[in-house]
């Protein structure tokens, strides 16, 4: 079993990578939309492919590849007002229930997303030629869900081993 220090480094590296990917996707969406406004209103020639790029690549990249970072910083819905007032024993049980649900959901998302991405890869699914869609095979952006869910699953499992309790550690 890896040492706590090794797990901490892996955890931090995955979370930081996810953060950079999410921020890059957000920055790219902003730049593409600014370029679209400039092209549409000042040049009179809209880009045409901008919506496809944002909805098929950048937004799924932001959401799904940002999952590990969101988990690592606790950017999820919680009821600390209620939770903090519960006895320690109930908190531990709730922590393990939440951790179990996270693992189950991450596994289901990774599996279902992988099935779709593999199917698209096997079928050679791609947008039609000369369409306003960006010419990227659909399996590439469909793989964001299983990758993001798989990485979040890794963080959840590392967190479980590192903390020894169900409670997410702050890294």
Automatic annotation (TrEMBL):
It comes from the Bacteria. The chain crosses the membrane at residues 20-42, 62-84, 96-118, 138-158. It is a multi-pass membrane protein. Residues 29-162 form the Tripartite ATP-independent periplasmic transporters DctQ component domain. GO terms for molecular function: transmembrane transporter activity. One of its GO terms (biological process) is C4-dicarboxylate transport. InterPro entries: DctQ, TRAP_DctQ. The keyword Cytoplasm does not apply. Keywords: Cell inner membrane, Cell membrane, Membrane, Transmembrane, Transmembrane helix, Transport. One of its GO terms (cellular component) is plasma membrane. It holds the Pfam family DctQ. It is found in: Cell inner membrane. Belongs to the TRAP transporter small permease family. This is Tripartite ATP-independent periplasmic transporters DctQ component domain-containing protein. It comes from Arthrobacter crystallopoietes BAB-32.
